[in-house]
Specification:
By secondary structure, the protein is mainly α. It has one domain. Helix 5 packs antiparallel against helix 9. The chain is globular, with a radius of gyration of 25 Å. Belongs to the UPF0718 family. Keywords: Cell membrane, Membrane, Transmembrane, Transmembrane helix. It is a multi-pass membrane protein.
Amino acid sequence: MSTTDTSVETPPPPPADGAPSRGWRPGSVEVLAAVLVLVVLFQVPISRAMSAPALQTWMTVFIAVVTQAMPFLVFGVVLSAVIAVFVPPSFFAKVLPSKPVLAVPVASAGGVVLPGCECASVPVAGALIRRGVTPAAALAFLLAAPALNPIVLTATAVAFPNNPEMVVARFLASLVVATVMGWLWLRLGRTDWMRPPARPSFEGEGRAAAFWGSVRHDTIHAGGYLVIGAMAAATLKAVVPAGWLQAVADNPVLSVIGLALLAVLLSICSEADAFVAASLSQFSLTSRLVFLVVGPMVDLKLFAMQAGTFGRSFAVRFAPATFGVAILVSVVVGVILF
């Protein structure tokens, strides 16, 4: 006697009361399709808006800044990851003098060996302190590395082809600021103001994973800030009335303070900030030098990274002091060289 299988597939039970039901969610393809449909439907007003002189100026400045800066940013990020991952932090401790007073200027000059954005200098400075380097020297290195490395100086030379003295001015001003801040921390800093860094970046991972993790992190962060900076520079050129900018630019005090605050707010990667500064051609070379010196040392993302690595008590003291010293030194160097 044969038995016939009369079982049927049981439908899934309905969701319990209060449980969220899985509804349809648009994916990237659907979103792209919707955007394309909207572009087709509104192509006339879009094309009319795109032909406006202000928008054309905005697009020209934005594309020019991003196109010029991107090769330096990518090369700097990759080279920074190579050095940060494959050069042991103990190497820096071995090459520094044992006396802290001498270690500070040597560490500042050592910033030349770390091409890359300022995002990489904070974890490296933390690693130096964990390896026994005096905090004053590690902080000097943290400030100097994003501004003194060859990638940034080369980008500055490309951005200011008619003003080669800007490269020398940026190098000297950044070196002096980093050294002065290291000595100030050595003289006035207190151990209870700084929280020791907890652990190194990418601890426990292989070198390849650490390398690509560093590249991804710096590319996303630096690239995002580059786009924001380019958009801000383009907006200043296209939207803000030229008379307003010229009024600020014509006032030596306002131009310096304005570009210093702009550098803090924009938080542009050091490989790209020279191209943004070059686009602000109505401002003096001295005020743009302030922009280039302040940006890699004091900005919003750096403040957050320093607070997360060394503690908020450290960041609220170190960042404002660096801001003031950077403005003062940049103005003095600008007056001398320009």
